Amino acid sequence: MEKPWSGRFSEDTDRFVEEFTESVSFDRELALEDIKQDIAHIRTLLRAGVLEEEEAKKLIEILKEIEKDVKEGNFVWRSDLEDVHMNIEAELIRRAGEVGGKLHTGRSRNDQIATDERLYMKKASEEILGELKDLRKALIRKAEENIDTVLPAYTHLQRAQPLRLAHYFLAFREMFLKDSERLLDCYRRLDELPLGSGAVSGVDFPLDRFFTAELLGFGRLVRNSLYATAERDFIVEFLSVCALIGTHLSRLAEDLILWSSEEFRYVELPDKLCTGSSIMPQKKNPDVLELVRGKTGRLFGNLITLLTVLKGLPTAYNRDLQEDKEPLFDTVRTLKGSLRGVRKVIEGMRVNREKMEERAGNFTLVTDLANYLVEKGMPFRSAHRTVGALVSYLLEKGKTLEEVTLGELKSFSELFGEDVTELFDPRRVADRRRTYGGTARQEIERMLRVAKREEGIGEPSP
User: Fold this and answer.
1) Are residues 313 and 197 in the same domain?
2) Which residues form the Fumarate lyase N-terminal domain (predicted)?
């Protein structure tokens, strides 16, 4: 087929160039967005007097037929037509005749692709926001089930202080809530229409861009035609937010991988979300979580790929920008799958409360012994040294904190009294953290009420 730019060239395009430069093998993922844009552009051309009523009606009808073929998988994609735009336009011309050639009036593929991408990303953002909300709800439900489950928190992967398991799940709920807020903020900048910017400098037809924006559901217009076609910062920001969401998913996955190991045995993952070994019959592998952890590297890589493409480009459109699509598509697919996988694990896993609580005592409680001495009047640094010496003594004797006698405690400080034994109960220790956002039961119950209200979760029916 004759290229749309063939009038300038004296030779046919080399087959290698066609194969090397084609993008339809991946950008056809934007086909529905492209058709939606085409229809809006036709209506804008009609409003501008570039098309007659019957011409516009005919083109829109044929585009809807093409849309049906695309959805049903009956559309034939041709690599020699380069990209999604030229494939759809060529088919429109084939079916409509010469009038189909009017579609590209007042438009360049430069503002066309930027518009398709923004339409695609708005939809993808809404889907990711939905997945994030579903995951947060799953975390809230798991937190409600485990208000009274106590386990040791870990810093430096060493047992630190006791906390309620609900507090842990609510911590990740906060992370994913902040991720949603970041994505919504990104969406606000994404919600701008580039169409009508032409190749670089605007359009010399009287196109009402505000009308087009209304048809396509954009809240605002991109205000500068050069910026509209030259920049991909909106994709960079989106990929950055997605990479951070992946980071949070990976950290949650890492915890659950550790907790499901024989060494921890804090949680039992659902069989249907695990796999076995081809050689070791006893194995139950947390493959979903491991892949979530691994796929986060792809999210990082996609962000770095686009930043690297952009960093040295001269201003205005360059063909290098073709390389923005595959990282974008891959990130959307990868992140949606990862969010869904982690949610399913959270919903289906079983908590081993006994094992968690077995390890929530002993030296995780000694910070409160130091605070006890402070409450009796000892400066904190002195209390820290005193309790540190007690820990060293217990380690030497092979005893746990719960096994220490009052006499032994008094040998380190006469300030220890019989009431100190209350601090040997991990739940009581957790409940001493009554500050806003702490792990006391009453504070967790308050945070749960807030979280359920924010997520629109009602009380269960009796």
Assistant:
1) yes
2) 7-301
Is the same domain home to 254 and 390? no
SS3 106: coil
Below-70 pLDDT ranges, the chain: 1-14, 18-19, 459-462
Residues 331, 193 within the same domain: yes
Q: Are residues 92 and 183 in the same domain?
A: no
State which H helix or E strand residue 189 sits in: helix 165-190
Q: Which amino acid is at 446?
A: R
- The verdict on residue 460 lying in a domain is no
Q: Please say if 167 is a catalytic residue.
A: no
Per annotation, catalytic residue among 6, 25, 277, 392: 277
Q: Both 115 and 101 in a single domain? A: no
- pTM for the predicted model, two decimal places: 0.92
Range of the domain at 216: 110-149+164-355
Looking at residue 97, its amino acid is G
Domain count, the chain: 3
User: In 3-state terms, what secondary structure has residue 399?
Assistant: coil
**Are 22 and 82 in contact, with CB atoms under 8 Å apart?**
yes
Q: Which two tokens stand for residue 141?
A: 């439900």
Question: H/E/C letters for each residue in 6-54?
Answer: HHHCCCCCCHHHHHHHCCHHHHHHHHHHHHHHHHHHHHHHHHCCCCCHH
